[in-house]
Design brief:
Chains A, B, C, D, E, F: Belongs to the enoyl-CoA hydratase/isomerase family. The structure is a homohexamer. Chain A contains 12 helices and 8 strands. By secondary structure, the first copy, chain A, is α/β, with parallel strands linked by helices.
């Protein structure tokens, strides 16, 4: 399933007809209730590789390969050239945090029940939650509290600490908000929107001087776009610009 | 104008009579309504360099030089040895965010209308906003939301997410607050204040171990100052210390 | 005293009977009112080393050694393998911030009076506050405001900006909360809890790709633990798992 | 072709029957005479993507995607879990340097004619040569000389500066040497060999403290291997150990 | 004098008529016999700033400003967009190493007498030698030996360890070699040459993945140059291409 | 034994009577023939900790603690404030490389028999060799060759690739050379020598801009030393300066 998820996101990333992506969960109960315990159990890991190592070092190699492949699948939304909006509702445990942490904008319902649940199954979360939370939420004390305790926190708490940008009353409202934001982004210059995503992701991980240098080089090609003229003219004429596909 | 801005900040940075700097906007309408579209248009960029390259690669070199020079001008407030307080009001679009992101402390009016506006003219912001916002505001979802959508956000929202430290009712109040903070900083040991600014900026961009190491070396000279004794004595005697210029 | 503090924390870090640590202050007046001015004065520094250098460069070497030793003592809580909860109340100045910034979860009373006080004695804080605050609180404007001005901020303000996770009415309440959290953490798999602390600390200081890579390698050994099976079974059976000491 | 190259290397990387890989060129004339100019021309790049952008910014996005895909193909040898030995002879221009820079051990004939040839077709090499040469050859003056001038250098010069480990008289000798080394590596514990490759690659790119930390975590699983006991016993008994596949 | 040096290099960096730069010394005795001891003495430093601080911390600030300004002057050759070749002969002490370490290609006479001389005047070299030597010469043991001991090493030794690319019998020969290399570089596409310098400098200081990413973005604009077509055609037709100025 | 080694080095590091340190091996046969296989075997590791974990994850924690403690012991020579010269002869396997890689200057006999021997006992070297070799020897192909193959290389080969600075005919010669270098370093300003070591180690691990910044701050205290005046005067008067202890 996660390999398919990556394939879909990678395809949308390069699809010329796509300007923004919304990821949401089916049904009312849960966005994602976490990893399928059975499938992810150690035997599962080894079985799907066709290996049955007994040496702890060889097991470790097999596990590392599996974790890295899983990380790659989930990270696809972050690497996706198009902006990704994640809408969460109901139960949003474990993988829900891994997945949504890779999105650009997070939206949820007020009563979403979040948890970094992995500690409760004897694991440190390894598909991205622990790597990304300290970089996307400002309070390190809060990040450690929820990650170490696996306690449930609500959509409203998620909004207060900045994990999500919007907490709406119902799933319908949250989807509507996501569509509104996605529509807004889709109307902008794709050169500008995709460049902004790339530069923000680069900035988060790099020193200021490196980020400024990279930005200058990036824009040395990007500002040669005809979108600048189109956008400026539309701004002056109060019309809506149209931009070439990307 | 931006070269002059840099010259002024660089001069104040080394001026022995200055202890703190306040940057604010003239008039009631705007702190800064963004880049002068005409001047910044591509032709403008090339014209001011006396070049008319048609080769996209040579245009790119010219653009990169221009962006880096512009970044250098705006970054001067961050590199300035003295603390810089930025007071914003009214329209504060585009360059307003670039400029204020370099300041140490941001203050605004509640009704300031902020926007990372560049996307609306077909550009990814390249004078520092995208490099600095992820490092000065804790919610990455919020940073991406406002940067990708170019939506307007108020001074109150800016306070809630931590972009500014104070949002006051009127421009007059905001200026008064800035003066109060500036006066407070000006009474402290300049060795302590300027060292604190330097070490915080270094810490933001470096690993913890590197920051601690740098801090130890920095203070190995700084704590030899006579300001420590003066400050301590004044603390005990409840008098106001005076410190040598720096 | 700080060497003893390090010895205690280092011992608890490896003690097989310890699952979580709470650091709090004795008495009602203060968690920590800051460095003992007399002991920390320059003469103090040199005296305790048995050196009386007059050369500013040799003094600097002596100061650097002293600062690094002090940093090492305070940093022990961060390096400690077990989660550390810090409970603050009353006056919490200077070293209180250095110390608590190393803890994983910070709890305080609403009326705690915090201050990054060092500027008021002519110093830039050098035992860790300036290195850690930009990485544990999301608003850089707030961090600079309190660090440059040495102004007092309350427990409630600390909660609002995310410096602490909980602000309770009384010290008794704060301690109770800390015990509740500590008890919760102590019931979890120590492999999972200690791995989570390590991976979050690593993530804070490293690029995303490096953090993901490290996480995969870390868990390649960690998920071979029998705790996973125990935790999963307990989860299914709704019983409380017991885990081997670590 | 390069996508196939990556597929082959990726397959060998995980193949349990492979212990070491040798990459060499067919025929006598050349290991690789560089990129196929026709295929790599700009039109070629755009054509194979099915895009015909005229906007310089959209062209840039297309080029960037192409370069990154090409880099990924060539980098596969560096990421390959098994050690890769590259044997070069005859003309070894452009891509020959990109490819061989990713190998672990480089071997050539004395009369190999190397060149970082890209400058001569109006390009800065972008498939890895400029990124890797400064990290695999110690003399930065030499690296810049050959990269800026595109001048031809011999196998003997490559040996003198450390780009290759062995320069042999003939291609046959070079292949024989590679087989000798490969055979030697294949007899060792694969846990030890593959761990050594991973840790050296990590060390090259990371600070010392980070490398030591990563090494400790890596080996915390790896030294639990039964290979240690087998290797030690064989060492004492002067027999040749056999190790499980990996 | 060093401010003038920077002005000259900065001007040549952007001058459209310049393709390569050679820095050499006048006369037969020395390329550079090191810093003017009198001018650089502490009093000198303070005097030229018009300050007479007695406080060690304020002296330190003044020294730091002076060192950074000096570093900026010397670093200009490294930041220069055009390739810089440094030719050394005779005495080449102290600043000679600082200066030449910033050049791209180093050439000397066999009997050049080099020394990292600063230790002999009670100083750790601070204008760039200690920062750059470990990154431009592969043997760290050699770098430490000459830097700690201040011992003299010859042009031939410099060639052997890779500090220089060529050691010629006489100054005349060395200049002739530099002119030959400069002429060669001047005939190449300036887009390719200047991009190669930039990418190599970036690679030296960054992780591999960051270097590859930056390279892709850099070339996304650069390969749109008409120089590629011109160079390729000239290659096929065996003619010498001409390239637009940059 | 290694804890004692660290204690000795740490003591010499701060001893005011020491200016340089030489580490050499007793007897004729070996500098170090590598780890005591018995002591380092897994049981050994667990036994000395008083633990008998069977859980692979708990074993991993125990191993990691042990490796880090061992790394700390060996790294003491690198962190030592005084320059350390390592003299090797005879068999210099495994730990011999770990230890000597931490020294500042390496000297050996021509017939020293070196080997990164760990692969032959089923291990990736984890006490520092793999972390340091890529940073102290320029040829990455050579580093990988000797680390992956565990093949023996001579003192002469070590000199050729830059691992050592001097290869002398006999152990007596090598010791004499070390004493000569140590005597030379001991006559210099300790402020200058120790600063040079610190700045070179910092430069190796940091980006150029960070190294230059650190250097400026370091020297802002260091150049206030009276050693500068003493050294300069002695230079002018052709006398030997004496410097205060450090």
């Amino acid at each position: 399933m996660w390999l398919e998820y990556k394939t879909i996101i990678d395809t949308l990333s390069l699809s010329h007809d796509v300007r923004a992506i919304i990821v949401s969960g089916a049904g009312d109960r849960a966005f994602c209730s976490g990893l399928d315990v059975q499938a992810a159990s150690q035997n599962g890991v080894f079985a799907e590789k066709g290996l049955t190592p007994t040496d702890p070092a060889r097991k470790a190699v097999s596990i590392k390969r599996h974790v890295q492949e899983f990380q790659d699948c989930i990270s696809s939304a972050e690497k996706c050239e198009k902006p990704v909006i994640c809408v969460m509702h109901g139960i949003s445990f474990g993988l829900a945090i891994d997945m949504s942490s890779c999105a650009d904008i997070r939206i949820c319902t007020s009563d979403t029940r979040f948890a970094v649940k992995e500690v409760d199954i004897g694991l440190a979360a390894d598909i991205g939650t622990l790597s990304r939370l300290p970089k996307i939420v400002g309070s390190f004390s809060w990040v450690k509290d929820v990650s170490l305790s696996a306690r449930i926190f609500s959509g409203d708490e998620a909004l207060r600490v900045g994990f999500v940008s919007y907490a709406l009353p119902t799933k319908q409202d949250a989807i509507a908000k996501a569509l509104e934001v996605a529509k807004l982004l889709a109307e902008k210059s794709p050169i500008a929107v995709q460049g902004t995503k790339e530069l923000l992701n680069h900035a988060r991980d790099n020193k200021l001087a490196d980020s400024l240098r990279y930005t200058g080089v990036w824009n040395s090609a990007a500002v040669q776009t005809t979108d600048v003229e189109r956008a400026m003219l539309s701004g002056l004429k109060k019309t809506r610009p149209t931009f070439e596909k990307l």
